[in-house]
Amino acid sequence: MFFSIKFKILISIAFIMTVTAGANIYFTHRDVGRAMLLSQREASEKMVSYVRLNTEDKYRSLLRAKMDMTLEKRGALKNTALVAVSVLDSLDRLEGKAGTTAAETWIKTIPSKDIHYLLLDRNTRVIAASTPRFRSDTILSLTDVKGRDLAQAMTWDRISDRGDYAVVKLGANRILTYFVPFSAWQCTLATVLDIDDIEAEAADKLVEIIKALESTARELVMIKGGYSFMFTGEKEFVVSSSKDVEEKLAGGINTRTDRLILDDMMAAATRSRKNGGGIQNQGGEQKFIHVSSLDPDRKEMVSSISYFKPLDWYIGVTTPVEEIRRPARELVVHQNLLTAVMLALGLLVVGFMVSRIASPLKTLAAYAKKLPDQDFTAESSTGIAIKKRVLLSRDEVGELARSFEFMETELKGNISNLMEITAARERIQGELNVAREIQMGIIPKTFPTFPDQEQFDLFATIEPAKEVGGDLYDFFLMDEDHLCLTLGDVSDKGVPAALFMVITRTLIKTTAEHERSPAKIMSHINNILEADNPRSMFVTLIIGVLNIRTGVLTYASGGHNHPILIRKNGETSYKTDKSGPMVGVIGGFDYRELSVSLLPGDSFFLYTDGVTEAMDPDQQLFSDEQLLGTVENGPLDSLEKTVENVMVKVKEHAGTAPQSDDIAMLMIRYNG
Q: Euclidean distance between the first and final Cα of the chain, in Å?
């Protein structure tokens, strides 16, 4: 029962319905809760925005008042300075530079209640002052609010003709000064005014702002358990609903971060602000954060916080999360009851439908179990009948039953065809195996092949990529003093390449019977292969003739890979000369003869491109450089070990990649 399709379908549908219902309940609860929080957030932000806009409006009034007073005092300083400059001009015209003495006396005795005068020499030292508060050492030690060194800023040759202003702090007072150059005497005239009264008036207006905000905050409508507040960067409350609220916020710990609630509010508000220094955007964006208060039941709260940078104030509204999410919880309870009723009804309906589906499937299962007992190779067999009711059904089960019947018919035909194809393939494979035996049989494989010849050692190997291949090597004595050796690579693989290889090898042997020159042998073979070559096949070929007595190896290379010369001392190098193009391509071509003198102990290494072009699974080639290094660093004391070492390295490089081309290698050492 537990393994039947009926049971599995019921369980699957029940699982899907349960998961769907659970997901629906979860996401509904989450999304409704989020919607409630978002709604409360918008309401809280509107309250905070209202308070902040009120604060900004009053703060703008405060700034305008300060600006008007500052501009008034700047104008008074400038006008006074210009009057003083006109007096200095008069003294200069009357007495010249000697008029500085009269100017000093005049400045010291000018009657003034608020504005004082300074006359500074070219080194910014005080010549005369209308008040003893300003001395040379005082000027040299002051820095204005912009961070400028006051003495340097007041040097007469650094001031523009329009003059300049500076605000400095002298003791507990803030001083506004205006200074202009007097070029005739290379000195500076400055007027000075105390502006502490501006700050005092601004402080009085700020107290009025706070009183107005307290009244506004208390009138805000909050949901049950919520409250509004405002505190400074020093955590001093400017406005709050009650002392109890101040105590909860000042000492409360946010259980989400284990930090003070006020610290988290300040961090959140200052992180979210943008361009906080200007009046147009005083506190940046509002930040909505979760906190937990110090109430006995540790209720979770959410707060909307905004930072007002000009006054370093934080404005906030806090609301209990429980009160916000209460409607969402009630909605989820009703939804759970409705979902449970729908789930039960759905399972009853599904159980009935599954029973209707499972019955014909049992019939098809019984039919499938009897299929293996049939002999599909027989011309006629007793078919296993499927119930007519199932075959005539118009749903997917009926389609499946008709597919079973069709499958039985097709199986008979496919098995018959497969038996014929298998027999033909086995016959072809047998013929290929015979061809491989014949091909390998005509290539010398016994080493040493010439045991009575001590003047040289020779070893060769071949490994086709398929059953038969297109690589070839051969060697034979032409007479007592000359050894002919050859190695080539036909431009294809498989049976066509093998036949072309046999023809090439036969032509080399028959031509070498009456010709000793490798170049002429290659030219003769090239003309024959090119003349009758319907498939346009070709072969890269090296033919060499070694004079056993002198060690001179004459050879011709028709488009083949460069051979490697290995000296007795281990020095290896490629012989890059070529005699001509690939054999069988261009008729009537006269190949050039090459030669190399082998000293006793020197070796000559021939190979096909199946070695250097062997590819690994990443399509990387074995390469000429790697072959040269393998030969140079390999065991050179034995030709067989050298060739086998190269074969091992090539296969290690290829790894799991299939052999992409035939491989042939031949190596000869001259002993002298």
A: 89
pLDDT of residue 581: 94
Is 575 exposed, middle or buried, given 0-12, 13-18 or 19+ CB atoms closer than 10 A? middle
Q: What's the whole-number average pLDDT of the chain? A: 79
Are 304 and 228 contacting, i.e. CB atoms less than 8 angstroms apart?
A: no
Regarding the domain with residue range 444-670, which homologous superfamily does it belong to in the CATH classification?
A: PPM-type phosphatase domain (3.60.40.10)
Are 277 and 316 contacting, i.e. CB atoms less than 8 angstroms apart?
A: no
| Cβ partners under 8 Å of residue 652, min gap 6 | none
pLDDT for 527 equals 92
> Measured between alpha carbons, how far is 206 from 42 in angstroms, rounded to an integer?
29
For residues 514 and 251, what is the distance between their CA atoms, to the nearest angstrom?
114
Two structure tokens written together for 501: 């290889």
Tokens 């003769």 found at: 524
Residues 6+ away with beta carbon under 8 Å from 3: none
**Which residue type does 398 have?**
G
CA distance 600 to 31: 92
Higher pLDDT, residue 503 or 280 = 503
- Under the banding of pLDDT at 50, 70 and 90, the label for residue 390 is low
CA distance 246 to 237: 7
Residue 264: burial class (beta carbons within 10 Å; 0-12, 13-18, 19+) = buried
Q: How far apart are CA 138 and CA 140, in angstroms?
A: 5
**Residue 361 in tokens:** 């499937």
| Cut 0.70: pTM above it | no
Report whether 525 contacts 507 (CB < 8 A): yes
Per-residue pLDDT averaged across 22-37, rounded? 70
What is the chain's percent helix, strand, coil content, to nearest 5? 50, 20, 30
Is-contact 559 578, C-beta < 8 A? yes
Do you know the residue count of the chain?
672
Of the chain, the percentage scoring pLDDT greater than 70 comes to: 76
Cα 409 to the center of its chain, rounded Å: 55
CATH class of the domain at 1-373? alpha beta
Helix (H, G, I), strand (E, B) or coil at 634: coil
Sheet holding 173-182, edge to edge: 126-129, 116-120, 187-194, 173-182, 164-170
Task: For residues 190 and 164, give the distance between their C-alpha atoms in angstroms, rounded to a whole number.
Answer: 10
CA 191 to chain centroid: 64
* Cα→Cα distances 543→59, 256, 516, Å: 103, 87, 11
- With beta carbons less than 8 A apart as the criterion, state whether 501 and 471 touch: yes
Kindly state the percentage of the chain with pLDDT values over 90. Answer: 23
Contact between 101 and 187 (Cβ < 8 Å):
no
DSSP code of 175?
E
- The DSSP bridge partners found for residue 583 are 539
Per the DSSP assignment, residues forming a β-bridge with 303 are 289, 318
Amino acid identity, position 446: T
Q: Tell me the pLDDT band of 406, cut-offs 50, 70 and 90.
A: confident
DSSP string, 251-291: H-EETTTTEEHHHHHHHHHHHH-SSTTSSTTSS-S-EEEEE
d(CA 538, CA 378): 51
Report the alpha-carbon angle 493-583-559, nearest 5: 85
- Three-state secondary structure along 126-173? EEEECCCCCCHHHHHHCEECCCCEHHHHCCHHHCCCCCEEEEEEECCE
Angle at 439 between CA 433 and CA 444, to 5 degrees: 130
- What is d(CA 84, CA 185) in angstroms, rounded to the nearest whole number? 14
Alpha helices in 532-622 (DSSP H): 609-612
